[in-house]
């Protein structure tokens, strides 16, 4: 058994901070790396040591495996946590860590290669008899082959990048006439995003739920699952809200899906934390139908906190323990799920304007707290959200004994939450949580698109008569009062900066009066 | 209390595209605010609890209003909503110019200079009520 004393965190944002916190709790030294855009980032402030990687673009900083390893060696780190994204699923980098005698906190390079590629993972699923979505198990060699496979399994089909993730390199193909442009489009997008143009084809499952199983495996061959997460609320294949447990998965189905996930992980000699993703068909009367293997994510997931909350486990602590060579401290039958957790991914995006990124300075930040609320954040008031990276600001998670109470807590927390200076998706989450379909758990991967389409019609519907003044009246009063009282904020906004506060405006007005 | 705080405000406030008319003045005791919102009488107790955060009590109902001033827009967060705000003060020069619709042509302005700071002179070009360009000249 090895003893990890110092961990380099090869990431940024909330996940870097999350891992640094775990290091502190375990009395392990933490080493942060940062780009020029992140010199003042929270993870740099929180770590014991911090070293510059390079300029802001990821390719010059967080994706520079050679620099990261050099810093790890020079700082004396004996392990490296990759977080998610960036280098986390790069088998070559994991291998380089092994060669440099720096423990990669994640699966081995060989397990990553076996399960990280979607086509290889589909082959592995076949080998263990796991149901998967019908389609090819190897990359498509040509457009003709794509047409042939599609004709065999029947339209609609989905083209997917073998090295893909995050919805990139994916195209839905409804008929043979759409295949040519979709095939070339998916290949070129995959090449740009992942450096590999390999695409494969699978049957498009209509309106499925996205259910994923968290697995943990130690280096002694023990592998367990920690139940499921329901990530059906998505936009363009990007998860927006995640919850655990799923509102529709029964204990019997959970154990069947969990056993299948464990079988797959074991077949590849998988170690550490990983997630096996499934599509769950909707059966008769909205009850769950068949499930199909989708892919495996060979890393810690963004949405891991919902599993932590319902299991009472700390997944990062467990990851470090496994990397230390320790056996899993519990058996499958000792895992119990309690309560319900829901997570919102808070992004600096303008959901009312095509989800455009909204980088910029956070001028105001009021964060929620109170019973059952956890926030994994990577920002602070005064922080400038850079344009160079994924614009996720934080993850807001509510936990409660029941799903209904978790929704209520999340709604309350969203009311407390205020982020100023940039646009965020807070308003979208409020809308989702008020939606009857969401509240009743009637979800599938097309749910959010439908809600967004219907939102304008719903917004036009008059709300119930209330005895309290409407929010717009209160906002009007507040606006007038801010103008009278001053806001103690001198951002220069015309509407609120009083003449006495703005010497610039005062001078301009004096000049205006003289002319 | 300054005169400006005592004076009655006559403001046109657009909230998420909906226009409100607000007249507001300090109450006689100076403890709160009295006025009319869209013609209806209103009594407000207001406290600035921290910069940009206003506590309002209206008819016994309590509200937290958070000012969100960005470079291109101003909003107020209240009741779990973010509402875009623009204010038109009929007494302001900007509003008067807007009403007149005149561009006014090019206008020079002496900018404020604090003691010990750079002695700065800028030309403020008023191309339109909405568009201004700054150009610098030698001190």
Question: What does this 3D model show about the protein?
Answer:
By secondary structure, chain A is α+β, with helices and mostly antiparallel strands. Chain A has 17 helices and 22 strands. In chain A, the strands form 6 sheets. Chain A has an 8-stranded antiparallel β-sheet. Chain A has a 5-stranded parallel β-sheet with strand order 3-2-1-4-5. The longest helix of chain A has 17 residues, at 251-267. The termini of chain A are far apart. Chain B has helices at 3-6, 93-100, and strands at residues 9-15, 18-26, 33-37, 40-50, 53-58, 61-69, 74-78, 81-88, 122-126, 132-136. In chain B, the strands form 2 sheets. An 8-stranded antiparallel β-barrel of chain B has the order 1-2-3-4-5-6-7-8. Chain B has a two-stranded antiparallel ribbon with strand order 9-10. Chain B contains 2 helices and 10 strands, in the order H-E-E-E-E-E-E-E-E-H-E-E. The longest helix of chain B is centred in the C-terminal third of the chain and has 8 residues, at 93-100. Chain B is mainly β.
Topology (SSEs and partners):
The complex is a heterodimer of chains A (515) and B (139).
Chain A lengths: L5 E4 L3 H13 L3 E7 L6 H5 L2 E6 L10 H11 L3 E3 L9 H9 L3 E2 L4 H8 L1 H10 L15 H11 L3 E5 L9 E3 L5 H16 L4 E5 L5 E9 L5 E13 L2 E7 L6 H17 L4 E11 L5 E10 L6 H8 L3 H9 L16 E8 L1 E2 L5 E2 L2 E2 L2 E3 L6 E5 L6 E2 L6 E9 L2 H14 L1 E3 L5 H9 L1 H4 L7 H14 L10 H15 L17 H12 L1
Parallel strand pairs in A: 1-2, 1-4, 2-3, 4-5
Antiparallel strand pairs in A: 6-7, 6-8, 9-10, 9-12, 10-11, 11-14, 12-13, 14-21, 15-16, 17-20, 18-22, 19-21
Chain B lengths: L2 H4 L2 E7 L2 E9 L6 E5 L2 E11 L2 E6 L2 E9 L4 E5 L2 E8 L4 H8 L21 E5 L5 E5 L3
Antiparallel strand pairs in B: 1-2, 1-8, 2-3, 3-4, 4-5, 5-6, 6-7, 7-8, 9-10
């Amino acid at each position: 058994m090895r003893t990890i004393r110092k961990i380099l965190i090869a990431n940024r944002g909330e996940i870097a901070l999350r891992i640094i916190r775990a290091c502190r709790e375990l009395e392990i030294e933490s080493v942060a790396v940062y780009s020029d855009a992140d010199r003042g980032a929270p993870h740099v402030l929180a770590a014991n040591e911090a070293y510059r990687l390079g300029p802001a673009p990821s390719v010059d900083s967080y994706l520079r495996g050679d620099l990261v390893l050099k810093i790890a060696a020079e700082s004396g780190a004996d392990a490296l946590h990759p977080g998610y994204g960036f280098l986390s699923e790069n088998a070559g980098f994991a291998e380089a860590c092994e060669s440099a005698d720096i423990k990669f906190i994640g699966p081995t390079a060989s397990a990553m290669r076996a399960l990280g590629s979607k086509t290889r993972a589909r082959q592995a699923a076949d080998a263990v008899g796991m149901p998967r979505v019908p389609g090819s198990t190897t990359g498509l060699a040509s457009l003709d082959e794509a047409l042939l496979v599609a004709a065999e399994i029947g339209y609609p089909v989905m083209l997917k990048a073998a090295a893909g993730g995050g919805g990139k390199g994916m195209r839905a193909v409804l008929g043979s006439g759409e295949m040519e442009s979709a095939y070339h489009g998916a290949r070129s997008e995959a090449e740009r995003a992942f450096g590999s143009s390999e695409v494969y084809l699978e049957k498009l499952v209509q309106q499925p739920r996205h259910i994923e199983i968290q697995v943990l495996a130690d280096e002694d061959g023990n592998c367990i699952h920690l139940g499921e997460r329901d990530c059906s609320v998505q936009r363009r294949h990007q998860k927006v809200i995640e919850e655990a447990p799923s509102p529709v998965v029964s204990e019997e189905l959970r154990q069947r899906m969990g056993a299948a996930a464990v079988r797959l992980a074991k077949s590849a000699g998988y170690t550490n934390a990983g997630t096996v993703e499934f599509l769950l068909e909707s059966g008769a009367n909205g009850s769950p139908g068949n499930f199909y293997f989708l892919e495996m994510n060979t890393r810690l997931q963004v949405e891991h906190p919902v599993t932590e909350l319902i299991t009472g486990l700390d997944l990062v602590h467990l990851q470090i323990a496994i990397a230390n060579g320790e056996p899993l401290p519990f058996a499958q039958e000792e895992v119990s799920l309690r309560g319900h957790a829901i997570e919102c991914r808070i992004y600096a995006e303008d959901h009312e304007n095509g989800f455009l990124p909204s980088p910029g300075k956070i001028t105001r930040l009021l964060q929620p707290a109170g019973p059952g609320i956890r926030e994994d954040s990577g920002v602070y008031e005064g922080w400038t959200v850079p344009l160079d990276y994924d614009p996720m600001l934080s993850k807001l998670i509510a936990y409660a004994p029941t799903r209904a109470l978790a929704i209520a807590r999340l709604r309350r927390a969203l009311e407390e939450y205020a982020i100023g200076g940039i646009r965020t998706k807070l308003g979208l989450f409020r809308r989702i949580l008020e939606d009857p379909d969401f509240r009743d758990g009637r979800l599938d991967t097309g749910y959010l698109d439908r809600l967004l389409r219907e939102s304008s019609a719903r917004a036009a519907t008059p709300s119930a008569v209330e005895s309290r003044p409407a929010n717009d009246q209160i906002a009007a009063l507040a606006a007038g009062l801010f103008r009278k009282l001053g806001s103690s904020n001198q951002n220069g906004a015309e509407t609120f900066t009083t003449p006495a506060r703005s010497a610039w405006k005062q001078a301009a007005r004096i000049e205006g009066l003289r002319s | 209390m300054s005169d400006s705080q005592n004076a009655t405000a006559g403001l046109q406030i657009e909230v998420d595209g909906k226009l409100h008319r607000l007249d507001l003045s300090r109450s006689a005791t100076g403890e709160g605010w009295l006025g009319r919102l869209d013609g209806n009488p209103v009594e407000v107790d207001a406290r600035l609890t921290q910069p940009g955060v206003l506590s309002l009590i209206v008819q016994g109902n309590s509200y937290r209003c958070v000012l969100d001033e960005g470079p291109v827009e101003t909003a107020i967060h209240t009741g779990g909503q973010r509402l875009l705000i623009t204010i038109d003060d009929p007494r302001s020069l900007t509003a008067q110019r807007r009403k007149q619709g005149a561009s006014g042509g090019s206008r020079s302005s002496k900018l404020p200079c604090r003691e010990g700071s750079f002695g700065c002179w800028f030309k403020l070009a008023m191309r339109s009520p909405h568009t201004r360009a700054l150009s610098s000249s030698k001190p």
